[in-house]
Each structure stands twice: as structure tokens, then as C-alpha cells.
Amino acid sequence: MPTLLASVIVSAVLLSACATASVNAPLRSQDPSRFTYTRIYCTPDTETHFENVTVQLSKTNVAPPASPLYAGGNRPVSSVLFVGGDPNWGTHDLKNRLNHPAPAAQFVVVLAGIFSVTTTDGDTRRFSAGDVVRVEDTAPCKGHITVVGDKPGLLMFAR
To answer: What is the pLDDT of residues 122-142, one digit of tens each?
Structure first.
């Protein structure tokens, strides 16, 4: 039951995130049958990179007797964690090039604030409310650097 509840919470947040406009917005067009998120992954040389991943969604009875909705990409989730960051958190790490691997493969949903993430290949992307990121750069990968913008930020981690 806890896994089902966590999956429902994550699904609701992911679906609500689609309605929020952003630079990396999951719903780039008005087509609700496609969902795009950013993936941070590790290559065999332990370097990290970004890639966009698009998931095809199909009409499904998600919450009968309500009308069908587009759904897909179902993954089991065992825990959800909410994390708040102070303004400019991570700036010291960026200045000193202190990368850190993710503690586990997980989805990260930005709930509030702006976050800049830099991978070891030097690419930086900004994420804001509504953006979804799949973080897979776990040890022994070198990791990435995250910096919170000039206002507090709030994230939801689902693993």
C-alpha cells in the first residue's frame, strides 16, 4: 500500500508539473500524449551528461469513473523525499568544482525556485518549477554540481 500511495503522489505531481511553463518544461507542445524530461547519466569514463527523454503516453482509465487521461512511464517508487535549499546553496561547490554523485537513481521534480545543474562535461542547464529530471549519475560516477538560485528552492525526490 505505501508503494501504491507513493506512486499515486509521484504521478499527481508529475502530471501537475506538465502544466507549468519553463525552459525545460516537460510539456513543450500542447500534445498531452508526450512527456519530456531531462536525464543526467554517466558514461563508462565516469563523466556525466544531459539528455532529453520523451515518453509516449496512452489514454488510460487512471481514476475511474473519471474520463481517461494520458499515462505511461510507470515506475515503482519506494520513497518520496522533499528537500529545501537556501538561496545560493551549492555556489561554493561550483566555484571549487566539487562534483557529487547522486545517492541513488531517482526522479527529481522542481517544486519552487531555480536550480542550475552542471555536469562534468561542462554543460549547465537551469531548472524551475515543473521541471522533471531523472538523476542516474551514482558512484563511481563523478557526479554533478547543483546550485540554488537567489531565492529558496524546493525539490521532490522519488526513488
So the answer is: 999 999 999 999 999 999 999
Q: Minimal CA–CA distance to 156: which of 3, 10, 43?
A: 10
3-state SS, the chain, equals CHHHHHHHHHHHHHHHHCCCCCCCCCCCCCCCCEEEEEEEEECCCCCEEEEEEEEECEEECCCCCCCCEEECCCCCCCCEEEEEECCCCCHHHHHCCCCECECCCEEEEEEECEEEEEECCCCEEEEECCCEEEECCECCCCCEEEEECCCCEEEEEEC
Task: Write down the pTM of the prediction.
Answer: 0.81
CB atoms within 10 A of CB 31: 10
Domains, the chain, in order of start with CATH, read: 2-158 (2.60.120)
